[in-house]
Amino acid sequence: MKRWWRGTFGLVAIVAFGFALATLAIGVVAFETTHEALEQQLDHRIAAETQALIDEGDDGPTGIAAAIRRREAARSTASLAYVLVDAAGRRVAGRLDAPVPTKPGYVELLPYTEAGERRIAQSLTTILPSGHRLLVAADRAVIDEIDVTLLRLFAGAFGAMLLLGIAAAWIVGAVTRARLARIDRTALAIIDGDLARRVPVTGSGDEFDGVAATLNRMLDRIGGLMDNLRQVSSDVAHDLRTPLTRLHNRLDEALASDDRAIQLVAIEAAAAEARDLLEIFAALLRIAEVEGMSARAHFTDVSLSALVTDLIEVYRPAMEASGHRLESAIAPGIVVQGDRRLLQRLLSNLLDNAIAHTPVGTKVTVALERTGASVRLRVADDGPGVSPEAAAILFQRFTRADSSRSTTGHGLGLTMVSAIAAAHDGTASVTTDTEFAIMVDIRAT
Fold first, then answer.
1. Cα–Cα distance between 123 and 125 in angstroms, integer?
2. Kindly report the CA angle at 285 between 281 and 287, in degrees rounded to 5?
3. Where are the alpha helices (DSSP H) in 102-239?
4. Residue 420: which H helix or E strand, with range?
5. CA distance 66 to 53
6. Comparing C-alpha atoms, which of 402, 396, 388 is closest to residue 430?
7. What pLDDT shows up at residue 1?
8. Is the pLDDT of residue 395 over 90?
9. Would the pLDDT of 416 be above 70?
């Protein structure tokens, strides 16, 4: 397996091996500390016994030799052994079969023989004033046994830690592979055309559920864009058929007639139809650009209160000229993250819609207020409104209410409003309870 250490199993195994090495390092330190403490304790015991012999035999070598014989006869030496030699190296007392060092001090590893068996002792040599040398030794078997026990204990701990780490790595890797396999199967199903498929969520709230939720949101967004693309294709094919047919008929009229005046009228009508088609395509391109969310890269803080107030003053003369009454209720100090140009177009489309599709004498009200963490822009009128059926599809492309069939337009203005609202993490909706109103909710700064 290439670069296994980058996988879940490899990473967890490396971490487990690191813990095992840490356990080993702690074991080494503990072993050395314990071993040293045991040797110091044995040295202290030997030194105390040496001093006791010297104090007990205060009359010189003869007293020390007598004390050694009493200890050996009583067998109370408790693993301590003795030998006393004179200045010439001749044994005076003691049964210890070991060479007596000529220099005073401790010898950590002193070889000696007991019952024909070679053993190792820890010893202290003391030179008496008479020149005699006193050697007190303690067998190191106890230390060696403790050392072996500690080594086995730490080796077992290291092995257990390593095995547990490998087992944990395998379990974590298996769980991770299983969860990732679900995501992989979902992705493969989507590649094969099942766009309704979503990544399973276990409900545990773990990191995988978080990734699954994000991926599902992305898939919902992609699915919406695909549905929108299909809807656009269908709408364009359906709604552009009539103007293209009219354009074709006008050109046929011009070709079929020899009358210069008739040809001119037909060509002018065809040119008007062509301009109308170009406007439709330009509007569709603008909507597609907004829906692509590219405008978010240029978002800045926009004072929505000031923007709406200024635009109302710009539209007030047009409203009065068309016989409408324009009223407003703008909350001050409202700021949003957004594109100023797009927000201006959103409100302009709503006001243009009110002028074009409501009768003379209609009161149009623009309200801006903060509602919790959102900002609501509301454009209402007391005109005839639309039916609930029409309100449900009012933001779709090329949708026009029955009352607006006789007016100019292509049914794309409110589609642009909805797209701009979505680009600002908002929504556009319609209410027809007491008056016709279009509400746009945008997240506030």
1. 7
2. 115
3. 141-191, 207-239
4. helix 413-423
5. 10
6. 388
7. 47
8. no
9. yes
What's the CA gap between 393 and 390, in Å, rounded?
A: 6
106 pLDDT tier (thresholds 50, 70, 90): very high
Any long-range contacts for 304-310 (C-beta under 8 Å, 24+ apart)? 304/334, 304/335, 304/336, 304/338, 304/343, 304/368, 304/375, 304/377, 304/442, 305/330, 305/331, 305/332, 305/333, 305/334, 305/335, 305/368, 307/340, 307/343, 307/344, 307/347, 308/347, 308/366, 308/368, 308/377
Per the listing, tokens 């003391």 go with 126
First to last CA, the chain: 50
Distance separating alpha carbons of residues 43 and 139, to the nearest angstrom: 11
C-alpha distance from residue 72 to each of 62, 125, 377, 437 (Å): 16, 19, 107, 114
pLDDT band, residue 408 (cuts 50/70/90): low
Q: How confident is the model over 3-13, as pLDDT tens digits?
A: 555 566 667 77
Q: In the numeric block, which tokens belong to residue 342?
A: 């797009």
Query: Angle, nearest 10°, between helix axes 141-191 and 207-239?
Result: 10
Helix (H, G, I), strand (E, B) or coil at 229: helix
Q: Which residue has the higher pLDDT, 227 or 118?
A: 118
What one-letter code names the amino acid at 334?
A: I
Instruction: Quote the Cα angle for 242-245-250, to 5°.
Output: 125
Q: Indicate whether 376 pLDDT > 50.
A: yes
Nearest to 166, CA basis, from 10, 7, 23: 10
Q: What pLDDT shows up at residue 104?
A: 92
Closest CA to 46 of 126, 101, 147: 126
Tokens describing residue 407: 């007016």
CB atoms within 10 A of CB 49: 19
Given a cut of 60, whether residue 383 has pLDDT beyond it is yes
- Lowest-pLDDT range of 9-18, 156-165, 247-256, 309-318: 9-18
Sign of CA dihedral 35, 40, 46, 52: negative
Cα–Cα dist 177/173, whole Å: 6
The number of helix segments (H) and strand segments (E) in the chain equals 10, 12
At 24, list the tokens: 């080993």
- Cα four-point dihedral sign 168, 170, 173, 175: negative
Neighbours of 418 (CB within 10 A): 23
Helix (H) or strand (E) holding 74: helix 61-74
Residue with structure tokens 């509301």? 378
Order of strands, sheet of 105-114, starting from the edge strand that comes earlier in the sequence = 91-93, 80-85, 133-139, 117-127, 105-114
Using CA of residue 67, residue 73, residue 74, residue 79, what is the dihedral sign? positive
Maximum distance among all Cα pairs of the chain, rounded to whole angstroms: 157
